[in-house]
Amino acid sequence: MRKLHYKLLIVDDMPDSLSYIRLSLDELAFIHKEIAIISNPMEALQYMRNHEVDILLLDMDLNLADLTGVKFAGMIPHPPVIIACSAHTNYVFEANEAGIYSYISKTTSFDKLKTKMEDAITQVDKRIEMQNRNIRVLKIPIEKGQFVDLEVDQIYYAELLPDGLKVYMGQDEYVFRLNLREFQAKLPADQFARPRNNTLVNLAKVGLIRTDLVYLTKPRENIQLSITPTFKSEFNHQHALYRQNNR
Question: Is the pLDDT of residue 87 over 90?
Answer without folding.
Answer: no
